Amino acid sequence: MAMRFDIITIFPRIFDSYVTESLFKRAKEKGILEIKTHNLRDYTTDRHHKVDDRPFGGGPGMVIKVEPVAKAVKKLTARGNQKKTRVILFSLRGKKLTAAVAKRLATYDRLIMICGRYEGVDERVAQHIADEEISIGDYVLSGGELPALVLVEAVARFIPGFLGKYESLETIKGSHPAYTRPEIFKFGKGKGWPVPKVLLSGNHKNIENWRRK
Hints:
Elements: E1 3-9, H1 22-29, E2 33-39, E3 52-53, E4 63-64, H2 66-79, E5 85-96, H3 99-105, E6 110-114, H4 123-128, E7 132-135, H5 145-156, H6 170-173, E8 184-185, E9 193-194, H7 204-212
Parallel strand pairs: 1-2, 1-6, 5-6, 5-7
Antiparallel strand pairs: 3-4, 8-9
Helix pairs in contact: 3-5
């Protein structure tokens, strides 16, 4: 069964190019994963399809309303028959996205992601609808769409068959400097920029030790 990612957003077309290229394109063709975007405005009842309103207590900006989010999540969960579904809200107050978090989320059959905008999302979404809140870092973005893409890729890398080689996972090989041809690259004046000699030695034990260091 393909792992499914459902993304609730007011800008569904933002995702079109990224999730239809490269690894995502091949993974979808192989039936490894499925990515669907859902326009939050489709779950409104007024003729203007309004998803936001002024915050109680005053303050700047507008807040995403709880009603359309609740309706969207209810409809999506009613459709699916997956055994394990997780609803995620992106928030500055959420737990940090790490490789361990991504690996845990990869064990679910389905992730439903809620992308906020404006000054945030009605707190009742976090309290009663989302299973958890996730942050991708200590900085502010205009919405949850980029965090959703980051999370989808971070999780997808742990799905068997998504990567060409399982060893490509950073958590498997560790992060180390990488070089390729030419052995010496000359750019302007000077002696050039050489590749470390150990990588040209053919001694795999020494190379492994160098990479670990």
